[in-house]
Structure formats: structure tokens, C-alpha cells
Amino acid sequence: MAGSGKVLDFEEYVRNRQDALLRSARRLVPDPIDAQDLLQTALVRTYGRWDGIADKSLADAYLRRVMINTRTEWWRARKLDEVPTEQLPDARVEDGTEQHADRALLMDILGVLAPKQRSVVVLRHWEQMSTEETAEALGMSTGTVKSTLHRALARLRQELESRDLDFHALERGERGQERCAA
Questions:
Q1: What is the DSSP string of 127-159?
Q2: Which NCBIfam families match (predicted)?
Q3: What is the reported pTM?
Q4: Residue 154, CB half-sphere, CA atoms under 13 Å: how many?
Q5: Which of these, 119, 108, 113, lies nearest to 71 by C-alpha position?
Q6: Which of 32, 67, 139, 146 has a CA between 20 and 30 Å from the CA of residue 95?
């Protein structure tokens, strides 16, 4: 009957933490459907090792690590199918609000980072973990977390500046066409 206790404990944990876990998954992958798939895959992988987690208060950290590893596996499997292009696709904006547009842009820009960099940025800034907590969750030293975060933020700044310049150039081009038409 010990097996049924394991199932009940795990089911209760998932019921209580599913919203927070889905938010973590959503921060790791831009598509909501992929985030649900990521969480489900992580839960399946964690269920088999549930009894091995002695301190259940660390279950969230364990699951985040499983999600990060799974996302990295997916990224490695897909990266061979990707074809580099000169232009990135436009960010999807469904409801037109500025907040949603900013979030879509941020999610799009996070895509330029390597998975390790994206993981560090997500854990440090979205999950608001300390450098030490991030290092522990990702299995790296605090110095590696700091240097990876520094490089990732520099890359994000560079990407934002590049997109801002592209936007202003496009805007000037449209104004010039309007003047010629008048």
C-alpha cells in the first residue's frame, strides 16, 4: 500500500503547486502549449523519483531543474532543424495592449540567448532567486552564474538596441514614402 501513498503525496503536491510550476515552465519556453508539455514531461520524469526526494520542500527546485534539462534536450534536438535568417519574425501581439506587446518582445528576445543563459536570466530575474540559489538549481558555481548573467544581459541589451534602430529606420522610411505620395 506504500505505492498508493506515493501517488497521493505526488497528486497532492501537483494540485497545490501546478499554477506556480506552470508559470516557471512558461518562463522557460515562449509558447503556452509547449510550456504545458514541458511541465507534463517534467512531472512524469519526477514521479518516478518522487520517493528519492527526501526533503519535499525542495521539490519545486527539483522540478525546475528537470524542466530546464528537458527544455535543453528539446532545444538541442530542434537546433539542427533551424535555419538562420537575416530577419527575425515579428513578435506576436494578440490583444494589442502595451504590456502584452512588451512581454511578447521580451519572450522573443529571450530566444536569442543560449539555453544556459536563458535559464540563468529566468531564475535570477523572473523567479527572483539569489545568485547562490540559481547556482544550486543549475548545478554551477556562483561565479559562472554571475558571468553568464552578465553576458546574457549584454546580449539582450544589444538585441534591444538593434531592434530599436531597425524600428526607427523603418519608421523614417514610411514617412519618406508618405511625403513622396503627397
A1: S---HHHHHHHHTS-HHHHHHHHHHHHHHHHHH
A2: SigE-fam_strep, sigma70-ECF
A3: 0.44
A4: 6
A5: 119
A6: 67
